[in-house]
Amino acid sequence: MQVQGCRVRRSHQVRAHRRRAGRGVASLMLAATLPVLSMTLPATASAAPAGAVVVIGDSFATNHSDDLGPACGHSPTSWPARLARRTGDHLINVSCSGASLFGRYNVYDQAKKAQKRNGFGPRTRAVLVQLGFNDWSGNRLHGRCVATECAHDGKLRTMTAATYAGRLRALVDYVRFYAPKAAIRIVGYPELFADGAHNLCTNVAGTKITKPQTRAAVDAELSLRNTQSGAADILGTGFVDARAVTAGHGMCSTDPWVRGVMYPRPGLAETLMVRHPTEHGDLVLAKAVADSLDG
Asked: How many structural domains comprise the chain?
């Protein structure tokens, strides 16, 4: 009997040791990646609010022009805000205009901020990541295409699903360990220019302006969409194809769901957001994300 009791106690000790070892493995996995990023996520997670939804993203998730400012402003009509109103979930939106996967206020800077707000825990419902536009295509490429003819851009060579997935791997592993019930979704970007388009369009105070021979900007968008989708396949997360649900409503369309220059909005911070979703565009994306979480 004593032997059996000893075995029982030892079995409990072994399981406890394995649990501690599992936590250590998760911490080591992060430690191998995050020191390079000058940031570490805590080795333990606090209790998240019931139904917490964490949003990590850039200006497409804020729809606000506060570019990497201390507040990182968010529009009340952004898709995360609309998602929270639609589902009733507790929103922890740490996205910031100008953010990226690799640069300033990157994905792990945002993850650390979310963790400080108790974003990762057993009651977390979802972690949503909308990043990449500022890393590869973004405003700089579109700006060059407006100013000059651009048929090719070297950055497209770096736009691979493996690179994107590699950057998110530590975050995905961390979430799966500390928030095992959370759905993880990579959220895509809305259509700015239609598939196969050769022209870049914008709308300035109601007047459409077209710049021909700007296929590189379109190619960059398509490449980013395929990169995000491929990364989701590699990581085993879901992918919300924003380009698909907004198809036919880019800037050159007769019914654009992305706005041009001086598109009227309630506040100046939203009015300045050129090439970002209109209120209806954000509403459509919020529904797509909600459907993805319910599916």
From this structure: 2
